[in-house]
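User: Can you help me understand a structure? I only have the sequence.
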Amino acid sequence: MSDSAQTPLAARMASLAEGLAGRFTDLGCEVEQGFGEVTLVVPRDHLLQVAQTLRDDEAFHFEEVIDVCGIDYSAYGVAEWDVTTASSTGFGRGVESARAFDIEAEKRFAAVYHLLSLKNNMRLRLRVFVDTTHPIVASVVDIWSGANWFEREAFDLFGILFEGHPDLRRILTDYGFIGHPFRKDFPLIGQVEMRYDPEQARVIYEPVSIEHAGSVLSDNHRNAQAPEQQDSSDA
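Assistant: Let's start by predicting it. Here is the structure, written out as tokens:
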């Protein structure tokens, strides 16, 4: 895409960032620009006030929420996969080894909202940090009803509580699931494994039967050896 084709979008993004800063800086909000996107970092206590304005004010008119997700920053910029045998180098490593920024206890988790303005043809990301001890943020379901299942997903996977949500139950994991599987300290092999027991005619839970992901990869590698290699090893 030519520079001339990018200019109108860049101008609209700059105008949006300027408008956000002028309207919400007094509430402690911060505006970030990068990678072709605008992000508004909102203090937890002011989320509902900011969200209401973003939806109703004609200057913004973000009438639709297209996604809500959680983020765990506890290992951000340190390791991609924290497993027993993983190295810090190798093919496909997309994160630098140096930490990008220091993680404070009150900023371990974040709830992130992606908004769309059909009228103005613009997108915006909201980021709200919550702490480790009390990862609670107000629900925006009364402002954007489409956030209902998204907030349940963030609760299920990250343990972020959305105060005021009408039905905050797990939505992806099993009813008896323990923990939140997208947290960085959740074991990759899980807490338990489940299977259907034909004798009991129900699903049962059992201790995990593998030690770590590395052992599974090693077994698969051995099974994939060439037939002549297997023959020679058996001789």
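Now, to help you interpret it: Strands lie at 30-34, 37-41, 64-72, 109-117, 122-130, 136-138, 161-163, 192-197, 202-207. Residues 187-235 form one domain. Let me know which part you'd like to focus on.
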